Amino acid sequence: MKLRNKIFLGLLFLFVIWLVAIQFQTYTYPDAEEIDKRLNYLERVVYQPLDPDGEIYQIGYESHEFMLFSYAYSAYALTNIAVKDSTYKERAIPLIRECIAKSLTRKIYSAYGVDESLAQQDSVASFSVLYLGHLNLMMGCYRLLSGDNAFNDLNDKITRYLAGRYENTPFMNLESYPDAIWIPDNTVALASLKLHDANTGSGYGDICKRWIEYAKVHYIESKTGVLYSTVAAKSGEALEEPRGSMLGWSIMFIYQFDNEFAIELYNNYKKYFSFNLLAFRLFKERSNSFEISLGDIDSGPLFFGYSIPANEFALGGAVISGDVKTARQIERLIEFGASEKEENNELKYKIRFIDMNINPMAEALVLNSLTLTRWVEE
Q1: What is the count of structural domains for the chain?
Q2: How far apart are CA 14 and CA 34, in angstroms?
Q3: What DSSP string runs through 94-125?
Q4: 371 FRET partner, CA 20 to 30 A, in 87, 91, 92, 211?
Q5: 376 domain-assigned
Q6: Using one digit for the tens of pLDDT, what is the confidence trace for 225-261?
Q7: For the Linalool dehydratase/isomerase domain, which residue ranges apply (predicted)?
Q8: CA dist., res. 244 & res. 298, Å (int)
Q9: What is the mean pLDDT of residues 15-27?
Q10: Residue 377 lies in a domain
Q11: Is 378 domain-assigned?
């Protein structure tokens, strides 16, 4: 046998051994060193002034939503970590407070038709459920961990407003922008009502139950058993087909008020949207799609139908479902698609292969998915 054939067979044998070995690897909760290094990076950028030199400000050039999401998902990840390990409360509480304070600045809220009256008036105008949902959920997280009343009045006011609007809309979903309704944005707002109920006993968590009942009848695609993405603002009919970037997002927040439904959605998401490829589990943006394009602001680039957000958000679903093998496969995919950078005791990642800078939002999203937990048990 020629030497090159021997080398080839040897390498093939080693590859098979490696492939078999990784099949037994599973997701494990991040250790304290990894959490601390990831938090060091997020802490630094959250405390940066919201000006052109700040990293969160700069990501706003891609999309104004990315600034809000950077703060919001940092707050959610911190809440996960502090609920899991109360020794992190001392670090988490002031940082969540800073995320809220930054989200209450004009640079953030002005993109959603919000003005200063939000904090000053007794009532809330018809502002975006996208913005109000994340702001309210962050305040609920702060209230849960801190016992401080700094944001209680605003948290109570927004909760009453959202609850009133849900009670009065015929199809249980509110607008993110004029005449535009996204189901994922509503799941965030609903999670904030559930958390307010847990914090205060307000009873608004019952709205979440009614939303689930309505969604199961009107917003589940029969073929895949998962949620549609958008709703027609005038008629309330399901509009855009299920999409991975939106479905995975919804699952993480539905988990906070109906864990069984969230896990059911994840299982269907995995069944109809994903494919097992050796060391990886790949999730598609749309079921049975093989599109290659630049995609849109929600999906990013599509490669044979697969998108970065569809896979990142699936990680959270796998974690909450106890699907530790799939969670590890997605982790491995993230590690393959991003290069690790450790500097000044900070840990962050940069996307390989394509020119796409979505940090610090991406770091907050991944840390939230890796640590996802239920904040309040029934």
Answers
A1: 1
A2: 30
A3: HHHHHHHHHHTSHHHHGGGT--THHHHSSS--
A4: 211
A5: no
A6: 999 999 999 999 999 999 999 999 999 999 999 999 9
A7: 121-273
A8: 10
A9: 59
A10: no
A11: no
